[in-house]
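Lecture notes, continued. The same structure-token format from the folding unit now serves as the input rather than the output. Read the line below as a description of shape only.
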């Protein structure tokens, strides 16, 4: 009786494994960097490493703008073209909201708050930011 049960179990596992292996995998979507995202913190205001937070945030927002959320990166320098210069201007505008100073970068709460407010102003009721780290509130 035990041999029969283990044989049925092995058969069931084999059928499930065969079914999983036969499924077609979806194509991978690759993250591609365009000119909008080719910016450095060295080009933002004083150019210190303190500006990496606003710069990375602006890069992320530029990528989202390039993928359907156009309001996240408008033509900020009004030259008729949305390009990396607009991404740099966005990083400079995010810096005060993140309380960045040349010698001190953005603390996580200020960085997230600035991004959340920026996105909420442009896309009300469309984005939700979830925080899972309880210590985050203490910073």
């Amino acid at each position: 009786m035990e041999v029969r049960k283990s044989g049925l179990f092995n058969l069931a596992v084999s059928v499930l494994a065969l079914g999983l292996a036969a499924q077609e995998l979806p194509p991978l979507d690759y993250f591609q960097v365009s000119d909008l995202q080719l910016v450095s913190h060295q080009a933002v205001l004083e150019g210190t490493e303190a500006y990496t937070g606003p710069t990375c945030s602006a890069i992320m927002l530029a990528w989202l703008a390039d993928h359907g959320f156009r309001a996240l990166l408008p033509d900020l320098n009004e030259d008729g073209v949305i390009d990396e210069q607009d991404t740099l201007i966005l990083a400079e505008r995010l810096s005060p909201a993140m309380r960045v100073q040349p010698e001190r970068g953005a603390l996580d709460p200020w960085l997230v708050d600035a991004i959340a407010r920026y996105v909420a102003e442009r896309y009300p009721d469309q984005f939700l930011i979830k925080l899972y780290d309880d210590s985050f509130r203490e910073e």
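Point for the exam: The mean pLDDT is 80.
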